[in-house]
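Re: the 257-residue chain
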Amino acid sequence: MSLFSDSDLTCNDFLSGRVRLWQPRSGYRAGVDPVLLAAAVTATRGHTVLELGCGAGAAILCLLARVPGAQGVGVELQPAYADLARRNAIENDATLEVVEADLSALPAELKQRQFDHVIANPPYYRAGAHSSANDQGRSIALGEGTPLDIWFDTAAKRLAPRGYLHMVQKADRLPDMLAGCAGRLGSVEVLPLAARLDRTAELVILRARKGGKAAFRLHAPLILHAGERHEKDGDSYTTQVSDVLRNGAALPVFSGQ
């Protein structure tokens, strides 16, 4: 994939402008999912964070904006998106190293490093389970090329002892996520994300710990929108979710370090 020209891009504000993200007009564009993922991570100053499949950098840049003093590394398969992530890191004055690589074949230097946190927003759809997008970058971002189990294997190997993995995925992939943790990660917690009250959760955020021994925990759903239905133009996010999206607040769901 060739690199993007400025005419191919838009510059969008996240966290009310604390993060400004260049992203393609017609390729994969970040929504609220990576912002919520970043808000769930219990990182603090001095922690190291690895994002697998960082795209243009939405999740890890939102995390680094919320946690001054944290250090990030992003791994991205697609050269054009890796280039965008580097540009976005520079323009947001973020401490982010971007490595262009397949997560199943990381460079030797990266294989020697361990991280306090690994985050990931893998493609939501199994190979062949969705219609291919016209844009190649979007198609790769949405459609699974690397099996989900390899994401968990790579994450577990790169985590330092007692380090945490946070991953956002479609709710129907939860059985695969739990299977990915088996024998690798423990202390598994799951936060369902539901659009409104009495709606089925379509997404989940999973947290798991390397060497964790705590019992599995299923949290009450995080409700994204107020009201039973969409009533008017404009967003209808709940106060808690709005605080995350607008002000860069943390999601205080997962406790402890």
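The two ends are 40 Å apart (CA to CA).
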